[in-house]
Amino acid sequence: MGTPGWLSWLTAFTSGRDPRSESWDRVPHWALCSVGSLLLPLWDETHFGKMGSYYINRTFFFDVHPPLGKMLIGLAGYLSGYDGTFLFQKPGDKYEHHNYMGMRGFCAFLGSLLVPFAYLIVLELSKSLPAALLTAALLTFDTGCLTLSQYILLDPILMFFIMAAMLSMVKYNSCANRPFSAPWWFWLSLTGINLAGALGVKFVGLFIILQVGWNTISDLWHLLGDLSLSVVTVGKHLTARILCLIVLPLTLYTATYAVHFRVLNKSGPGDGFFSSAFQARLSGNNLHNASIPEHLAYGSVITVKNLRMAIGYLHSHRHLYPEGIGARQQQVSEPFVLSVLRQHQAVDPLDPSFPVEFVRHGDIIRLEHKETSRNLHSHYHEAPLTRKHYQVTGYGINGTGDSNDFWRIEVVNRRFGNRIRVLRSRIRLIHLVTGCVLGSSGKVLPKWGWEQLEVTCTPYLKETLNSIWNVEDHINPKLPNISLDVLQPSFPEILLESHMVMIRGNNGLKPKDNEFTSKPWHWPINYQGLRFSGINDTDFRVYLLGNPVVWWLNLLSIALYLLLGSIIAVAVQRGARLPAEVEGLSQVLLQGGGQLLLGWMLHYFPFFLMGRILYFHHYFPAMLFSSMLTGILWDTLLRLCAWSLASSSLARGVYVVGLLSLLLGTAYSFYLFHPLAYGMVGPLAQDPRSPMAGLKWLESWDF
Fold first, then answer.
1. Domain check: are 475 and 578 in the same one?
2. Which of 190, 159, 205 is CA-nearest to residue 66?
C-alpha cells in the first residue's frame, strides 16, 4: 500500500524537503492551499512584515499606527531566527529560505487566544457554561477570524489586547465584594496593562478604553451612593483606579515609544515625514552629527523645508512656467537654495568689515535663488493647480527685481526669541504686496513641472503646517558652527511630533479614484469580503469573509436583544413581578448582555464618523462582542423557552436540541466555507467545477 497523500506531504514538510515535490493529487484540498499560503506573503503582510524587518535592522520608518504591534512582530521574528532581509515588496513574492514562520506563528497564537478569552468573558458575565461554549464555537468556526489570525497582521494583536482588557475588567468587577484584595489589585492592574497594549497597537484601542472608562465611572458612582462607605474609602477607590487605569497605561504606552525611538536609530524611509530636528537624531541622515551656524543672519545660504510635506524643500530650477500658466517666469516648487538678503541690500552682508546682522521676527527680507540669481516672487496671477491661490515664481536679474520680491518673516514658536534658529524655529513668509502666505498645496505638478509639489501663496492666513517652514541647511562663513546634537528635540517633543504625524497620516488616508473601499453598513451583514491574494483561477486565492451563519446569527441576535431587552426593561420599570428564575435570566441579559452590546456599539459606530478609507477587517473587534452577545442571548432564550414548558424532560430536550442546532449549523457552515481561509486554487465560484460552486450566496462576494 502506498503512503497516503497527506502523510507524504506532512513528512516532506517536517523533514525539510520541499512539499511541493510530493504527489499533490493525493493531498487534501485544504492542506494544499495551506502550504501555498505558507510560502508567500499575502495582503498587508507586505507592510507589517517589512516593518518587523525594519525593527530587526534598526531602520527608522513611518506608519499611521502606534508602534507596539510592529515591535512585537519584529521581536517574534528576531527570536525565531528571521534576519530581516526579506524585502516584502509585493504580495505573492515567495519567502524562499527566509524564516518568517515565527512572525506568523506569533500572530496565530494571539489569534487563537481569542476563543478562550471569549469563553471566560461570557462565563463570567452569564455564569452559564453552555453560553460560554456556544460563544467559543462561534469564534472557532468563523472563517474571518481564522483568516486574519494566520498572517503577519496587526489585527490579531489588537483583538488580543481588546479581549484581554475586557476579560480583566469583568474579572475585577467580580472582585467588587473584596476590594483592595490581591486578586482585585491584580485584575485592575492587568486591565490597565491591556489598555496600554490595545492603544499601543492601533488608535482604535481607544474604544475599549472608553468602555472600561464607562464601567469605572459607573462603578465609582455606585460606590459614592453607598452610605456605608466613608469618604476616605471612596477616595481610596478613586485613587486606585487613577493609578491602575490612567497612570499605569499612560506610562506603559509612553514606554513603548521610548523603546521604539531607541531601537530605530538609523536613517530610513520614514525620515522625511518628520521635522529636521527629529531627523538629526538618526544615524546616516545628512543632519546627524552635522555642524552649522545656529542662528540665521543676512548673507546666509539656506535650504527651507515645509513642515507638512515629507520631502517639501523649497526648490527652483531654470525652467519657466509654460504659456497660459500664470506669468511666464521661473518655476518654484518643492524641493531653492536661497541667499537671505535685506529688502534693499546696499552692501555685501558677507563682507568681513561689516558686523553680522541676524534675521529677526518681523524683518522684511528678499530670498535669492543661488543658482539663477532670481528672487522668490509672487503676484496676483492664479497658481497653476490650486484655485484662489497666487502663483509663486523666480523673478529678476542678478537679484534685481521689483516690489513683489519682498517677504516678511514671522516666527511662529517664539520660545527661542526673535532670532531664527536652524531646525527649531518655525517660520512663515508673508508676501508684502499681496499679504498672502507662502505654502505648499501638496498637489503634484504635471510633467512640465517635473512632477514636483506645487508651491503657492495662499491668501488664507490661518496657521497650518502647509504654510510653516524651518531652516535646515545653513552656510555663513562669518558665523561659528555648532553641533546639531544640541538642537535635538527632547523625548516629550518627539513623542508629541510622532503623534501629530500619525494623526495627519490617518487623515490623509482618503480613497483614490476607482479604489476598492468598504462601507460600515456592509460589515455586519457580511456584504463583501476582502481579497487577500489572487484574482484568476490559476492563482492561489485567500478571501477574507466571515462565516455567513455566524455573522447573520450575530446580526439577528443584536435585533432580538434590543427587542427582548426593551420588553424586560419596560416590564421591570412598570413594577411587574417576575418569577425568580426569569428575574435571574433577565439580570444576566440586561447587565452582561448590556456590557457586550456597548462594546459592539463602541467598536462599530465610530467608523461612520471617519473620513479615512475603511476596510472590512475594521469590523472584527466589534464582531467579537456581537458573538459574545449571541452566546448569552440564545442561552437565555432557550432557558426561557425551557422554563415555560411544564415537562422538565421536554424542557431539557428543547434546550439541548436548540444549542446543538446552533453548534452544528455553524460547524457545517465552516466546513462549506473553510477554503476561503485556507486558500483556493482552480475555477472561480461561478464555475460549476469550482469547489465553491453554489456557495456564492450574495452577488457581492468575489471569490
1. no
2. 205
For the stretch 663-676, pLDDT in tens is 999 999 999 888 88
How far does Cα 180 stand from its chain's mean position? 36
Domain membership flag for residue 23: no
The answer to whether position 516 is within a domain reads yes
Q: How many Cβ atoms sit within 10 Å of the Cβ of residue 642? A: 19
Q: Identify whether residues 546 and 414 lie together within a single domain.
A: no
Three-state SS letters, 446-504: CHHHCCCEEEEEECCCCCCHHHCEEEEEEECCCCCEEEHHHHCCCHHHHHHHHHHHHHH
Count of beta carbons in the 10 Å neighbourhood of residue 201: 27
Peptide bond into 352 cis (omega under 30): no
What mean pLDDT comes out for the span 346-370? 81
Backbone phi, psi, residue 652, to 5°: -65, -35
Helix axes 114-126, 101-112, angle to 10 degrees: 10
Tell whether 526 and 651 lie within a shared domain.
yes
pTM of the model: 0.85
Q: Which amino acid, residue 529? A: G
Same structural domain, 375 and 405:
yes
- Domain shared by 475 and 523, yes or no: no
Contact 625, 603 (CB under 8 A): yes
- 119-143 pLDDT, tens digit per residue, is 999 999 999 999 999 999 999 999 9
* Structural domain containing residue 420: 288-488
At residue 382, φ and ψ (nearest 5 deg) are -75, 145
Print burial letters for 80-94: b (CB count within 10 Å at least 16), e (below 16): eebebebebeebeee
CA angle 453, 455, 458 (to 5 degrees): 135
Shared domain check, 592 and 470: no
Q: What is the DSSP string of 191-207?
A: HHHHHHHHHHH-GGGHH
Does 64 fall in a domain?
no
Kindly state the cell numbers that stand for 66: 502606534
Residue from 122, 141, 142 nearest 631 by CA: 122
Nearest to 206 by CA among 627, 610, 524, 603: 603
Given a cut of 50, is residue 20 above it in pLDDT?
Answer: no
Distance CA 598, CA 625 (A): 9
The phi and psi torsions of 272 (rounded to 5 degrees) equal: -65, -15
CA of 279: how far to CAs of 68, 270, 276, 423, 440, in Å? 21, 9, 5, 10, 21
Residues 657 and 561 in one domain: yes
Alpha helices in 16-44 (DSSP H): 29-38
| Of 488, 521, 548, the domain-final residue | 488
Number of domains in the chain: 2
Angle between helices 620-644 and 548-573 (to 10 degrees): 60
Place 335 in a pLDDT band, splitting at 50, 70 and 90. very low
